[in-house]
UniProtKB/TrEMBL annotation:
PROSITE patterns associated with the record: IMP_1, IMP_2
Species whose genome carries this gene: Podospora appendiculata
Higher taxonomy: Eukaryota, Fungi, Dikarya, Ascomycota, Pezizomycotina
Protein name listed in UniProt: Inositol-1-monophosphatase
Catalysed conversion reaction: a myo-inositol phosphate + H2O = myo-inositol + phosphate
Top EC class of this enzyme: hydrolase
Pathway linked to the protein: Polyol metabolism; myo-inositol biosynthesis; myo-inositol from D-glucose 6-phosphate: step 2/2
Residues engaged in binding Mg(2+) 1: E70, D89, D92, D247
Length: 302
């Protein structure tokens, strides 16, 4: 059987809009059912309800495909294989959702041979949709669920941010806007590396700091939206150590189709895997961006 990627894309977009309606209808003030690792690692009943809806829709539409979801993942037991697989984060940005900070999304990825092949990321608070199909480009659409003719999908990267088919110039690290996240891991060496890296990226060179002094750091609170912002060219880089495949699978396809690249957040990892946990997303065609990536790896490695 040949797999119809456009049909999968359309199915995922319809599911994303349904999930968006559930997320907007939920009351974030009284839905916290508990935490996972610590008080910064939050899960809500809405995360679980959205994942149940998504998995039942996908099970009906594509009964033979595998499904990996954040809320039903079992460490050590759930594996991403070469099979056609949906990789789903029902709410990426749960902390934002709980606080009513309007940056949260549903992230729906589809992989073939472990390669991100379709990606749909939808922020219902902004009605903002990002989509990508491998080989077919990636797009951003405003007022997406209303399908207003004055808001057609815009090809990524956005105008003025390069051309996905060429290698657009991306300056030095010191001219970059960089997305980072604190994540939910708040102790030990993992925390120290984050704190040290953020400091080195922002410290002024003039005062004897070892930093590259980027333009600034941004933490949107959603890995998937950070990757989409990188694909659009709204930020130049996004670094995080501690994500899972469901945080990145959809965005990965969207970024690659915008001419960007996911590499390892650890120095030297030009080739990286969906479940490597430590990522650096880079906008622009990867071939032209080795300098800024090496510069960033230098900051981590110091
Ligand atoms: C979270 C991300 C957040 C990131 C965390 C985690 P959740 O996902 O969106 O930006 O820092 O590592 O992945 O728990 O909201 O789905």
């Amino acid at each position: 059987d040949t797999i119809n990627l456009q049909e999968i894309h359309d199915t995922l977009v319809a599911i994303a809009f349904e999930a968006g309606r559930m997320i907007l209808a939920a009351d974030p003030s009284d839905i916290s059912t508990g935490t996972k690792m610590n008080s910064a690692d939050i899960v809500t009943e809405t995360d679980q309800a959205v994942e149940r809806m998504v998995s039942s829709r996908l099970q009906t539409a594509y009964p033979s495909f595998a499904f990996v979801g954040e809320e039903t993942y079992v460490a050590g037991t759930t594996h991403i294989t070469a099979a056609p697989t949906f990789i789903v984060d029902p709410i990426d940005g749960t902390t934002n959702f709980v606080h009513g900070f309007p940056f949260a999304c549903i992230s729906l990825g589809f992989t073939l041979d472990r390669v991100p092949t379709v990606g749909v990321v939808y922020n219902p608070f902004q009605d903002l949709l990002f989509t990508g199909i491998r080989g077919g480009g990636s797009y951003m659409q405003r007022n997406a669920s209303h399908q207003l003719p004055q808001f057609p999908p815009q090809r990524l990267p956005l105008a003025g941010k390069g051309d996905a088919s060429r290698a657009p110039a991306l300056g030095k690290l010191s001219a970059a806007l960089v997305a980072v996240e604190w994540g939910s891991q708040r102790e030990g060496e993992n925390f120290e590396v984050k704190a040290r890296t953020f400091r080195k990226l922002t410290a002024s060179n003039e005062n004897g700091g070892a930093g590259s002094m980027v333009h600034s750091l941004r933490s949107l609170g959603s890995a998937a939206l950070n990757i989409c912002a990188t694909a659009a060219g709204q930020v130049d880089l996004y670094w995080e150590g501690g994500c899972y495949a469901w945080d990145v699978a959809a965005g990965w396809c969207i970024l690659a189709e915008a001419g960007g690249r996911m590499v390892s957040g650890n120095p030297g990892g030009w080739e990286t895997e969906l479940d490597s946990r430590v990522y650096l997303a880079v906008r622009g065609a990867a071939a032209g961006q080795s300098e800024i990536v090496e510069e960033f790896w230098g900051v981590i490695g110091d």
